[in-house]
User: Which sequence fits this backbone?
């Protein structure tokens, strides 16, 4: 049987940033939770005490911030392109978002044709970078609290917590929709695999993009 | 046990800083060098190695320089914001009302510094801990006066039950009213009341105090709204995902292929 045709959806750069944030987010989340609630005090010994957890938190915070920043410097056009995709909203995107709750629950609804990233992923692509930006900025202020004015420091704490909570809230959907949701199937490997998805799947889920990019091949 | 604290009678303070030295000696805190900035106040601010200082506030009044001295240290609030925000529960109130830190539990996160309505806790880089006055709990437990009170030569500091301290403060203010019409008691109700009570000869602002010290608004929002309620959003999206996992499979049973690969839009 001939190998099924597969097409590139996510570039190596995108996958590196995604991988790094995937790993860092969870380490930062759990080391941070030790400082947030008693519910996770059982985790404290894993990181060698609360001080150890704070150290891990800072090490991975640096990686968390550095990887996308390096990517931004190394390939600014790639980031700009992604942001252009994410901020271009048409009628099909609005329709997609309106129908999404039904699709999420499994009702058979008509989903308008989508580009390389669908409207939900567009929202995700704006939401997460924003959340990460605010987490990073507030984190710097919290880390070097002595050199910042008090009003900034007292704002940084609620912003940091608000952003990781909203981020993790979105992450619940993001993880599920990217893996176990029946429609996602292939997109998991677009990020965690070699960046390629089955052409057949791409044509169905990202029709506009597929036709524009690979349509001529047929 | 009744709350205990001390009176800082600024009208009796001569700015000798004996209290500062006694504090540093008792707590074995190293000296820190400071630069002369045109004021006799040798230590510019509280630091991780200075739990108490005397601030010098100089004003030109009636054709001469008037000095307003105010000893600064932890106010030992009755309802301490630092204790509320501490994620390690390293701050507690003793049975005499002193607000104390557990050095072993403290991780130097500086949350307390941001929450304190008096901006007292300071970070010590060498120990990676937040520091502040403990009201010499280890001394008072043995029936000895706090180091600063013991050292005060003019009687500007007086340690005792909070009620008694407050009584003395009010008495002293009524004495001062003639010469200092703005004399007032500071600490009775400020920030919910403190165990350290001041007799100020003039408006609090003149001593560098805030008239109405408050916990910063964002800190309250953080503690009272974001921390207790917002994490439920994570549970909500998590629950919806789990529901979707089952409902998509129930509703899509037998039509898996259609959803997966072929076409639902014709």
Assistant:
């Amino acid at each position: 049987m001939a190998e099924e045709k597969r097409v590139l959806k996510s570039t190596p750069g995108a996958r590196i940033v995604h991988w790094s944030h995937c790993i860092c987010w969870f380490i930062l989340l759990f080391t941070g939770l030790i400082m947030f609630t008693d519910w996770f005090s059982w985790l404290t010994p894993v990181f060698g005490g609360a001080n150890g957890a704070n150290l891990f938190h800072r090490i991975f915070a640096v990686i968390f911030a550095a990887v996308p920043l390096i990517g931004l410097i190394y390939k600014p056009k790639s980031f700009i392109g992604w942001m252009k995709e994410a901020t271009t909203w048409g009628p099909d995107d609005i329709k997609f978002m309106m129908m999404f709750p039904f699709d999420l629950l499994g009702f058979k609804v008509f989903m308008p044709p989508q580009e390389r990233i669908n409207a939900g992923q567009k929202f995700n692509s704006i939401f997460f970078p924003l959340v990460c930006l605010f987490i990073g900025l507030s984190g710097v202020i919290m880390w070097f609290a002595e050199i910042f004015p008090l009003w900034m420091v007292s704002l940084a704490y609620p912003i940091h917590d608000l952003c990781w909570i909203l981020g993790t809230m979105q992450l619940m959907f993001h993880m599920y929709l990217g893996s176990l949701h029946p429609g996602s199937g292939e997109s998991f490997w677009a990020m965690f695999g070699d960046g390629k998805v089955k052409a057949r799947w791409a044509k169905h889920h990202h029709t506009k993009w597929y036709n524009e990019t690979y349509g001529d091949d047929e | 046990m009744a709350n205990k604290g001390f009176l800082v009678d600024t009208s009796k303070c001569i700015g000798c800083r004996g209290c500062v030295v006694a504090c540093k000696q008792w707590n074995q805190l190293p000296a820190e060098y400071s630069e002369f900035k045109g004021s006799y106040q040798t230590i510019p601010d509280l630091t991780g190695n200075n739990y108490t200082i005397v601030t010098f506030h100089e004003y030109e009044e009636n054709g001469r320089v008037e000095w307003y001295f105010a000893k600064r240290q932890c106010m030992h609030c009755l309802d301490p914001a630092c204790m509320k925000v501490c994620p390690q529960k390293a701050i507690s109130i003793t049975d005499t009302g002193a607000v104390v830190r557990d050095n072993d539990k403290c991780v130097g996160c500086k949350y307390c510094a941001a929450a304190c309505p008096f901006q007292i806790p300071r970070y010590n880089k060498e120990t990676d801990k937040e520091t502040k006055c403990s009201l010499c709990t280890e001394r008072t437990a043995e029936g000895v006066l706090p180091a600063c009170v013991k050292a005060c030569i003019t009687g500007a500091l007086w340690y005792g039950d909070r009620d008694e301290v407050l009584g003395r403060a009010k008495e002293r203010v009524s004495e001062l009213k003639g010469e200092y019409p703005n004399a007032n008691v500071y600490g009775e109700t400020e920030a919910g009341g403190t165990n350290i009570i001041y007799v100020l000869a003039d408006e609090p602002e003149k001593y560098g105090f805030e008239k109405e010290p408050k916990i910063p608004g964002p800190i309250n929002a953080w503690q009272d709204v974001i921390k207790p309620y917002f994490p439920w959003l994570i549970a909500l999206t998590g629950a919806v995902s789990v529901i979707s996992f089952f409902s998509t499979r129930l509703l899509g049973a037998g039509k898996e292929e259609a959803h997966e690969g072929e076409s639902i839009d014709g």
The CA atoms of residues 60 and 157 of chain A lie 18 Å apart. Chain A has a mean pLDDT of 88.
